[in-house]
Amino acid sequence: MNHPPVVEWTEDEQVRTAHWxxxxxxxxxxxxxxxxxxxxxxxxxxxxxxxxxxxxxGDFHNARQLLTALARRVDRRPRKAPxxxxxxxxxxxxxxxxxRARILGMLLVPLDAELAVPLHRAPDVREACTRAYGxxxxxxxxxxxxxxxxxxxSLRELLGVIGANEWRRKGVEIPALGGDRIHPHYGVFSxxxxxxxxxxxxxxxxxxxxAFDIGTxxxxxxxVLARRGVRRVVATDQxxxxxxxxxxxxxxxxxxxxxxxxxxxxxxxxxAPLVVCNPPxxxxxxxxxxxxxxxxxxxxxxxxFLAGLADHLTPGGEGWLILSDLAEHLGLRSRAELLAAFAxxxxxxxxxxxxxxxxxxxxxxxxxxxxxRAAEVTSLWxxxxxx
Length: 387
Description:
This protein is α/β, with parallel strands linked by helices. It has helices at 41-49, 60-75, 86-104, 126-133, 155-170, 195-202, 220-227, 240-252, 300-309, 326-329, 335-344, 370-375; strands at residues 6-11, 14-21, 31-35, 52-56, 107-111, 151-154, 172-173, 181-182, 211-214, 233-237, 259-263, 272-277, 313-324, 347-355, 378-385.
């Protein structure tokens, strides 16, 4: 079994070690200081900005308060007015987000060998951590690790793990499924923003025998197609978390007999009269697993889908590309580039269905990207093979 990286620090004049967990790929901190209820927020902020992580040994609720205090200090730092160029504004916004995440990620908490938090007033996180990280493996602890500090994780990430587990328990109500719920797993993009689901629920079906759902994620689109009467849906993904999530959701929704979940990079074998894909919408580098559903470096998945679509359609079949034009408003991809990719893939546009965003950020005038978000439109492109 491959174990996570090992982090080392000195505590009580002894060298200690533990496994390092970071879902966003952050490297283990080089310097770690011990912090507790006596640690002042200003001192913690100074150390975090200098690159020293703080391993918390005090009350769990006080750790959460310190994290909030650190966030206030990050957010009140003076910032320059956003540049007029929207593309530059996007890149500066992403850089500021990454810097904020780096500083807040410096507050660490321990997990024991059973993935519990051995701190006063800590919640029971074992189920959430097991679902996110996999079952604990107490046999693979590094030399020097103690039972109460087998793993170090940033408090910010741990709170995300806890929150994701609550979403998984409660689920997300999907109007296109008659109000039934989709239960997203940790690291799998939640369909909380449902405009694109509504498009798939309303577009005219070319055939009800077979459909492919490329990059199924939670399985929400495959489930909508099955509920619409498509007799067989082959749903693909290459992320093990997404595959497990889609299987669980299609079973919950009673469509598992209609939906086959397949591990594949884009297309399954064969052809179908309907091939659906909702790729990441913004060509930028993701910084965490869940961001892979939003950011697609170099439009790799988009171009891969368009390049292979014609070869996976039956005669007269349709490919449904669900795509926001946010990247166009951000200057990251032009409409001309998208249309050229259609042509290069031997595709023609049969129709386009549009829907405006309903999420709150489209109305948040304090957002540095507000102009682009307010103008955003999500489209379902009905594509066919050019003759």
